Amino acid sequence: MDHRDFLLDDLGRRIQSSTIIHLGEYALVVRRFDTAIKMPVVHTYDADTSINVCRAQLRQEQRIYRCLQPDLRQELQGVVPCTAVWGNTIELQYMSQGTLGQMLESRGVPSLPLQRRWLYQLAIGLDSIHSRRILHNDIAPRNLLLDDSLNIKFTDFGVSSIVPKNEDMHDFMDGYNCSMWTDLIQLGSVFYAILGGQRSVVNIYPNHGAFAEYPPLDTLPDVSHMWAAGVIEDCWNPRELHGGAREVVQRIKNVVSYYEDLEAGCTNLGMKRPR
Ligand SMILES: Nc1ncnc2c1ncn2[C@@H]1O[C@H](COP(=O)(O)OP(=O)(O)O)[C@@H](O)[C@H]1O
Ligand SMILES: [Mg+2]
């Protein structure tokens, strides 16, 4: 009899190591054709208690997907499409170009057209998520995936929360002090990473704490030399963004079209760059 320890899928079948994309603390992601399947981490000899913790985590993420994509045939703009939810697993469209983090690490600063496209797609994605009353709570380059055409989409709703129907999105804070404003701070940090070709620098969970905090403004990096400076600064100072992610979408559109006009030579020289 074979007593070696193997990873098992949700039906108790042994997982081939060549199919593993990622092995985390709670979740395992394996590739099957054009899907990535996220499932709880289960080893042959794991205790039931530890398996149950992983399963509960996946089931919470399934609940989030049911809010984001109540009809699985309809994708949500800017979010990695979920193709099926069964048992304790989540099936997602396979994103062939990996994470934003991997891309920045291997290729450095992206081209200007890619920077513009990604900022715009991310703002749209976060607006879609918030419009479904979900807080992402873990927006970081490792949780943003790229498809064949280098479109960027949100994934990993493992620590997300649902804003109850009787609460105002603008005022709501979950049990870990997360809110739409902390999502925007993290979004600004990802923008900074994209424009600088490096890792995000803003941490809303200081000292490895579980509770989110607004980072003091004077500890944040200087972005004045970046084309999206005004947008990033306002993401970091949420009092400036009453319209939330939807306002970020509009602001990026304005800045991008200002620069496109400038490049095409049709901007009035006296016109100020929009913030
Ligand atoms: N749909 C997907 N396509 C390709 N790779 C994926 C996909 N989903 C997840 N991954 C890979 O698996 C990693 C972990 O997935 P994630 O959902 O972030 O799980 P965790 O909750 O463990 O962080 C991602 O950073 C990415 O590298
Ligand atoms: Mg993750």
From TrEMBL:
Q: Top enzyme class of this protein?
A: transferase
Q: Does the keyword Metal-binding apply?
A: no
Its transmembrane ranges are none
Q: Where in the cell is it found?
A: Chromosome, Telomere
Q: Which residues form the Protein kinase domain?
A: 15-275
Its main localization is: nucleus
Its recorded reaction(s) are:
L-threonyl-[protein] + ATP = O-phospho-L-threonyl-[protein] + ADP + H(+); L-seryl-[protein] + ATP = O-phospho-L-seryl-[protein] + ADP + H(+)
Query: Highest taxon of the source?
Result: Eukaryota
User: One Pfam family of this protein, by short name?
Assistant: Pkinase
Mention any one GO cellular component term assigned to this protein in its UniProt record: cytoplasm
Keywords of this entry: Chromosome, Telomere
**E.C. designation(s):** 2.7.11.1
GO MF entries: ATP binding; protein serine/threonine kinase activity
**Could you tell me what this protein does?**
Component of the EKC/KEOPS complex that is required for the formation of a threonylcarbamoyl group on adenosine at position 37 (t(6)A37) in tRNAs that read codons beginning with adenine. The complex is probably involved in the transfer of the threonylcarbamoyl moiety of threonylcarbamoyl-AMP (TC-AMP) to the N6 group of A37. BUD32 has ATPase activity in the context of the EKC/KEOPS complex and likely plays a supporting role to the catalytic subunit KAE1. The EKC/KEOPS complex also promotes both telomere uncapping and telomere elongation.
Q: How does this protein assemble?
A: Component of the EKC/KEOPS complex composed of at least BUD32, CGI121, GON7, KAE1 and PCC1; the whole complex dimerizes.
Protein known as: EKC/KEOPS complex subunit BUD32
State the species of origin: Penicillium olsonii
Lineage of source species: Eukaryota, Fungi, Dikarya, Ascomycota, Pezizomycotina
